[in-house]
Amino acid sequence: MKIGSKTKVFAVLGHPIGHTFSPAMHNAAFAALGLDALYCAFDVAPDNLLGVLPAMRAMGLGGVNLTVPLKEVAFRGLPHLDASARRLGAVNTVEFSAEGPVGYNTDGYGFLRAHEEAFGCGVAGSNVFVLGSGGAGRAVALMCGEAGAHAVTLGDVDLERSHRVAAEIHAAFPACAVQVAPDAAAWPAAVRTADLIVQATPVGMKAGDAALLTPEAFRAGQRLLDLIYWFPETVHMAVAQAGGATVANGLGMLLHQGARAFEIWTKQAAPVAAMRAALEAELAARKLAQAG
């Protein structure tokens, strides 16, 4: 593409940011629609975020995505929040409006679309175990409650954090039974009784990480969705599949949250097929690099 003075710039911000596939996905979308736009990635420390966002708006950027660990910083610091961000307590998409930066959360939408696409069903009526109660795990757990999950069990080394999320789910969705696994020793039994297991911890982001669960924790008929997307098969996918579960990584969630963000910024329907092809190419390249 030819970059000029009228090229509209978008970006993803994180700390670190080297793992992201978002530029490939969004630049493919711009190309598919013939838009004069460019999507970049910038490493921004949490303490700098609330100064960077107004500066980006002043510079004329079209919008940004936020990833770890900036989502909660933006939620606490932005004066304008969409209902999606208020509901999930985190911001992963920022639109630069006339009133100032507006925070959205497209992760919940992306999770539900990815789950349906990967497993051919919704989460309504399911018993769900969410491993990790941080930003992503909290958003997923709340979305499961909103989508009609029968029960949600939370597992995290930070027990206090799990209890806070459990209280939020109970208050917002009282029809959903919610409980907290008291410690890591209780996780396997909780996993065995679940229909859907969502892996939302950072474990598995680095090659050589050991899984938090073993194959014995899983059984046939279960679904595991690991939110990590930059490995074709994560360590938790491997152990879950060995135990008989059907598995998927987080690439579908990345795709659908990104498509929703694209639509917020451009007011156009996202070219999902082009975005998916770009992500799959990135994943194939990563797999080749791993093999090498």
- CATH topology-level name of the largest domain: Rossmann fold
Portion of residues in helices?
40-55%
Average of the residue pLDDT scores:
95
Strand content: 15-25%
Q: What is the CATH level 1 assignment of the largest domain?
A: Alpha Beta
Largest sheet, order of strands side by side?
2-1-3-5-6-4
Features:
292 residues, alpha/beta, Rossmann fold, 6-stranded mixed β-sheet, 6-stranded parallel β-sheet, 11 helices, 12 strands
Describe the overall structure:
The chain is α/β, with parallel strands linked by helices and 292 residues long. The protein folds into 2 domains: 8-105 and 254-285, Leucine Dehydrogenase, chain A, domain 1 (Rossmann fold, 3-Layer(aba) Sandwich), CATH 3.40.50; 108-249, NAD(P)-binding Rossmann-like Domain (Rossmann fold, 3-Layer(aba) Sandwich). The chain contains 11 helices and 12 strands. The strands form 2 sheets. The protein has a 6-stranded mixed sheet with strand order 2-1-3-5-6-4, sandwiched between helices. It has a 6-stranded parallel sheet with strand order 9-8-7-10-11-12, with helices on both faces. Helix 1 packs antiparallel against helix 11. The longest helix is centred in the last third of the chain and has 20 residues, at 272-291. The chain is globular and about 60 Å long. The two termini are 31 Å apart. The model has no long low-confidence stretch (mean pLDDT 95).
